[in-house]
């Protein structure tokens, strides 16, 4: 069974601060996804990374896939209250049912 | 991508009753998934539903408690049977893209 360890579990920060969320595994994944979920909604895909060492940017969000495709990070620069939500990483995909991390609950205070 | 709708969006049910949740997709898909989620926590896969075959249940979930129907390639239902307060949760359906999954908005169930 592939496991994804996601940390930290909770983050409460002030607007303007930077933060990084980590997703780690002992298994190699063919791809890794990051999702954001707001209260009352389902998770929404932010990005998919598939190549070891890959870096993708989405405005103030930077996603990195580890060289060995076993870990990933999400960095948010100058966080805003609109970034508040539950962030989930998921590994696998394709013909495999994805494995989800436990999630990081982020609150950004104005 | 896929657009997924779920009904109902929320419900409050009495202990011992059953609730059927509907999931509608705007395109034909082979695999549909049902998840359970406690607020603020990660997703737990209940079962995978393929059209034309029996659903495949994950460990800890059984067909008698969570019967699933998949009558066509755009629709599925999940029934939560003989409910207890422990079944209070958010239930989500999803479909598989190439790598990613697309989720419905969820059904928030409260059992009293």
Through-space gap between termini of chain A:
40 Å
Strand tally of chain A is 11
Rg of chain B, rounded, reads 13 Å
Tell the overall outline of chain B: globular
Strand count, sense and barrel status of the largest sheet of chain A are:
6 strands, mixed
- Form type of chain A: globular
What is the percent of helical residues of chain B?
under 10%
Structure classification of chain A: mainly beta
Low-confidence stretches of chain A are none
Strand content of chain B: over 45%
Number of helical stretches of at least 4 residues of chain A: 0
- Termini separation of chain B comes to 37 Å
Tell me which oligomeric state these chains represent. Answer: heterodimer
Number of strands of chain B: 11
Query: What pattern of helices and strands is seen along the backbone of chain B?
Result: EEEEEEEEEEE
| Helical content class of chain A | under 10%
Low-confidence stretches of chain B: none
- Count of runs of 4 or more consecutive helical residues of chain B: 0
Overall pLDDT of chain B, averaged? 94
Encode the helix/strand succession of chain A as letters: EEEEEEEEEEE
